[in-house]
Amino acid sequence: MERLTFASRKRAYTIAAVISILLGILVIRLYELQFVQFESFRSQAETNSIRQIAKDPLRGLIFGRDGTLLVGNNPSYTLTVTPFEFEWGTLPLLKHLFDIDTNVVRYRVSRAGISSFQPVKIARDLSFSQLSLLEENRTLLPGVNYSIESRRVYHLKPHLSHLLGYTKEISPGLLKTLGDYYQPGDIVGFNGIEAYYEDVLRGTKGYGYHAVDARGKVIESFDHGRADIPAEEGSDLVLTIDMDLQQYGERLMRGKRGAIVALDPSNGEVLAFVSSPDYDLRDFSGRIPVDVWNALRDDPASPMFNRCSMAAYPPGSTFKMLVAVAALQEGIISIDTRINCPGSYMLAGQEFGCHGAHGDINVVSAIEHSCNVFFYKLIFKLGFENLQKYGRLFHIGLPTGMDISNENSGLLPSKEYYDKRYGSRWNIGYLVNLGIGQGEINTTPLQMAAYTSALANGGIYYRPHAIRKIKDRVTGKETPIDAMPEQLPISRDALAIIRQGMYRVVNGSGTGYAARVSGTKVAGKTGTAQNPPNPDHAWFVGFAPFEDPRIAVAVIVENSGFGGTVAAPIAGAMIRRYLFGAPVPQESTDQPAPADPAIPVIPPHDAAVED
Fold this sequence. Notes:
Elements lengths: L8 H28 L1 H12 E6 L6 E2 L5 E13 L9 H8 L3 H11 L7 E4 L4 H9 L7 E11 L6 H4 L1 E4 L2 H6 L9 E4 L1 H5 L1 H4 L4 E7 L5 E4 L14 E4 L3 H10 L5 E6 L6 E7 L13 H9 L21 H10 L9 E3 L2 E4 L2 E4 L5 E3 L1 H7 L2 H22 L21 H8 L8 H4 L10 H12 L3 E2 L5 E5 L6 E3 L5 E2 L4 H16 L15 E9 L2 E11 L6 E7 L5 H18 L31
Parallel strand pairs: 2-10
Antiparallel strand pairs: 1-8, 2-3, 3-4, 3-5, 6-7, 8-9, 10-18, 11-12, 11-23, 13-16, 14-15, 17-20, 18-19, 21-22, 22-23
C-alpha cells in the first residue's frame, strides 16, 4: 500500500481541482456582475451616489380680457433644511436668526424622515439681511440653505379678491387630499380661480440630479446637469372680467354689505364679481402679516366671506318670474288668465298680505306690481313637483358650475326636505311663502344673475365662467372655455310674457324705476327679502338693452330695506357704466361740479308701494 504524504501527487491533484473549481466560480460570478447584472448594479450605485432634488415651476400668470397683466410672479427666497445633514443642536441658533417656529421645523423634518436628502421648506420670503445672516453662519448651520421660488404680485386697480383667491402654503389637511405631487411647504391656490385652476396654474415640477459623497452631502451637479429634468411653467389664464365695471361696482358697494354679479347673457362670461366688503390681495403676496390676518378674521363684517357665490339669501319677489314662467309653460295660466287680488290672502285662518288691492290682474301686471296674492294662489296650482322641475332648470338649489372653487348650491325646498326637517308637522300650506320667494328657499347672487341671464336671452342657460381662455406657455396653444349652453325647454312665447312684465317693472308703474338708464331700455325686478329679526335685504335683477341684452345683473344689499330704493339704483348705474362707459369729464367752469352719477337721483313716482 502506497503511503500518502503531504507532497504526494494525489494530494496535489486534489488541491488543484479545488482551486480550479473556486476560480471557475469566481470567473462566472465576475462575468455575471460585469455583464449579466451590470445595468442593475450600476443603477443601484448611481442611486446611492446621486440625489434627486425637486425644482418648483413658475406659476401661470393671469391676464385681463384686454391682455394686461393682472397677477404675476416675483422672486422669493425660502429657507430650507436637508434632514440628513441637519444637526438638531443648531435649532436654537436657527430660531434666533430667523425667528421661526421650532415646532414647524420638527414637524417637517420628522415627516420627511431624518435620512431624507430632499430639502424641506421651513420659512418663506427671507429678506436680504436674513440671507446675509445665513451666509455668515453657514458653517454653524449644516444642512441649512435657501432656494429661489416665486410669489404672487398683483397689478390690480379693483380688488377682485373673492374671484381671484390667493396662494398660500399647503396645509396638512390638503396634503392628505391632493396627492403625492405636493410636499410640506409647497404653495397651493386657495379659494377662487387660483384654487379652481390649480392643476392648470401650478405647472410641473422639475428635478435636478446631484452627486453626493459617502455622507450624502451634495458635491456637484451630476453629469453637468445634462440629466436634469426642467420644470414646466404653469399655463396662463385670461379673465372675462370688465375691469372698469368691476372697479366701479366695488366703489358703488363701498360701506355696504352685499354683492353684485354681472354676466354677458350671450355667452355666460362674468363681467363683474363684487362681494362687499372685500380685502386687498396685495396683503396676501408672500407671508401674510399676523396683524393683517387677525384684523380680517375678527372683522364682524366678514370681508373674507364671498357673498357672490357663497352667501344664500331668500330671493324675495325676484323669484316670482320663475313661478310665472313655470305656470305658463305647463299651461296652468295664459296671458289672458286673471286672478283676483283683494289685498290679502287667507289660508287656514292666517292672513297673508299684499302691497295693495290689485283686483283682477294677469301675469304681466302681477309681475309689474309684484302682486303677492297672485303668486300665493298660483303656487298652489303649480305644486311642488313643477316648482322643483323649473327651479332646477335655472339651477336654483344647484351649483351654477362656475369656475370658482367655493360655490353654495342654495336651497329649493321639496316634499322630501320638509319630511326630513318637520316630519308630519308640515302641510301643503308651506308652499304659500315659496310663491313669493320666501320661507326656506335660499339663492346666491350668482344663481340669480345666471337665472336672469337665461330669461333675458330667450331661454339659454350658460354656465357662468370668469376665464375666457387658457394659454399654454410652452406650446402657445390657446384653449377657450366651454360655456356649456343649455337650451331650456321653455317656449319663447312664455319667456316673452315674462320679459314684458319685467320691462314694465322698470318702465311702467312698477317699483324698478330707479334702474332706468337714459339711452337704453332696462327690464328687471325688485325684491325685498324678509330677514327676521334683522332688517330686510334689498334685491334687484335686470338686463339691458331690452331688445338685445348685453348685460344681466343681480344686486343684493344686506339689511338695507326696499329693493326699489336701494338695489335698483346700483343696478342701473352698473348697466349705464357698461353700456356707455365713464362720463366724459367736463371742462372746468365756475359752475359747481355735477353730482356723482353713480347713484342716480330717484325721480318722483306714483307707485304706491315698495318691494
